[in-house]
Amino acid sequence: PPPPPPPTPVATATSMDDGVERVLLEVGDGEGGFDLQWFEVTIENAAPTVDDPSTHSLFGAATDLVVGFADPGTLDTHAAVIDWGDGTTCDTGDPAAACSVDPAGRVVVGSHVYAAPGSYAASVTVTDDDGASATATGTIEVAVGVDTADAWMATDAWPLDPVSVAGVDYARDEAIAAMSLASETERSAALFVEVVAASLNGASGAEGACVADLLVASHAWLANNPPGSGLEHNDKPWKDEGADLWAALVDYNAGLMCAPAG
């Protein structure tokens, strides 16, 4: 049979930028014979890739965005545009813009304050100095934060005044007086405290779906055990249900459930 054809030499090289490169290829036969040949190789530009910009923040505070990107062209420079999803954009080409590209870390950074809570479809577009670009789209969740009962007791203006608990309306001062009864020997008032705080958080716009059933059960429990009932930790109504309702609402008002802490 005829001898197999000689192998085709394959050479690889890494370039830091697009353009035309002169490459010297040396081929040897393993027996001392070799040849040299110069070639011109055209390196094409590669587009960058951009990470997912999804994040979350509190309503009323700045949303700080840090989005990474990659580009095989290590000598490329980049510009970026952030579309915040609410009709506003930020262009890093504007010196006064609240966004920029960090060339060393290869990240796009920006800051924005949303006018309303909600879910926003935001995008980041990165363009290299050869005009190639890539866009990544994600969701920015802007949520109203919850406050603790102590914070509400120190707040002058309540979004509910009066606030209704177990079918009884309490003006702010009346509610605070009942809240002040909470102690180790007055657990009904302790649950009352958390119900008032959760109600005020919901009225402020915080997500409250996760405690809707808890609040219904808490109102029913307080209708049978109002503040001033003198229930203690070991009393049956508290042990059977009240303590669990109280603990869950404490978590909610601390930002540990469906709404973040404010």
Sequence-ordered SSE layout with sheet pairings:
Elements: E1 19-28, E2 34-43, E3 49-50, E4 55-58, E5 63-70, E6 78-83, E7 89-91, E8 99-102, E9 107-112, E10 118-128, E11 133-143, H1 149-153, E12 163-165, E13 168-170, H2 172-179, H3 187-203, H4 212-224, H5 236-253
Parallel strand pairs: 4-11
Antiparallel strand pairs: 1-2, 3-5, 5-9, 6-7, 6-10, 8-9, 10-11, 12-13
Helix pairs in contact: 2-3, 3-4, 3-5, 4-5
Question: Could you write a compact summary of the structure shown?
Answer:
This protein has 262 residues and is of the alpha+beta class.
Describe this structure in words.
This protein is α+β, with helices and mostly antiparallel strands and 262 residues long. It has helices at residues 149-153, 172-179, 187-203, 212-224, 236-253, and strands at residues 19-28, 34-43, 49-50, 55-58, 63-70, 78-83, 89-91, 99-102, 107-112, 118-128, 133-143, 163-165, 168-170. The strands form 4 sheets. A 5-stranded mixed sheet has the order 4-11-10-6-7, with no helix packed on it. It has a 4-stranded antiparallel sheet with strand order 3-5-9-8, with no helix packed on it. Strand 12 and strand 13 form a beta hairpin. Helix 2 (172-179) packs antiparallel against helix 3 (187-203). It starts with 18 loop residues before the first strand and ends in a 9-residue tail after the last helix. The mean pLDDT is 93.
